[in-house]
Amino acid sequence: MTSVDLQFSTSDVIALNSIIALMMFGVALSMRPRDVLSLASAPKAPLLGLLAQVVILPAATSLGVWLLDLEPGLAIGAILLASCPSGTFSNALTWIARGNVGASVGMSALSSLSAPIVLPLNFALYGWLNPITRPILRQISLPFSDVALFVAVVLAVPMAAGMWTGARFPGFAARVDRPLRLATVGIMLGIAGLALLANLELFVDHSLDFVAVVIGMNLMALLIGQGVGRLGGLTSADRRATTFEVGIQNSPLGLGLLFTVYPEAGAAILILAFWGVWHVSAGTALALWWARRDRRSAALCAQGDEGRAEPERAFSP
Hints:
Elements: H1 10-28, H2 33-37, H3 44-67, H4 72-83, H5 89-96, H6 101-129, H7 134-140, H8 144-168, H9 170-198, H10 200-205, H11 207-231, H12 236-247, H13 251-261, H14 266-315
């Protein structure tokens, strides 16, 4: 594994995990059990998105790092990242891109609720199947129960608390929803910025190792989301939702896991840290491009309608 000695204190780890838990609590404030149950009436898009998220992406990532013969530290970071649930930013990007926000929320709910089981299973399965990363799994010795417990504490418990709070105190949930989201994102960016400044030289020295991996993996994830949507016969709005659900990963969750149980995994940490910057930038650019294309198409259609209507107005009395 690439030797990368990151400067990240115990207090930083506690702060990171606390912010992840707070973020999950805030996201769940607007979720209700009926939102998950309502997927039964239109399950196709969420289920296809979940299939791409928890089955196809981890398998494709494991195959890709094996074929590319990546350095083991980078490979284990990529596999862990692909095992994480979708990121909370995916819903906002789907909204910007004029996609199906309801389907996006449904996919996020399924992905997050299944994460305490799916994340450690995928990480252990594909990390063990891949001969490049198998020695690392022996070295770090991550029991399934430990990983599941960590994900439950920082993900499942806060989400359950958020759903209960939102249902019990809807007025309070409505008031704090936006401020809480802004505050958690701001604090998360602050922690990431301080960590980046403390390790700036390391990021620069190892940039060639992980930048290409992150960009290539994100492109693959976006294409998987779009491809599954097309093969499944989904509408354009649903395909945009699946694209962002598969292409936007909850990298802070993976970072929190590594810093908690294996902070020596420097190369893997670099993968997840840079992903947090890249996927937001690339996802925002794609969402804005889709939205702009829709506006241009709508404008052209409007012009065409006016042109066809013009002769009728000319001959009207």
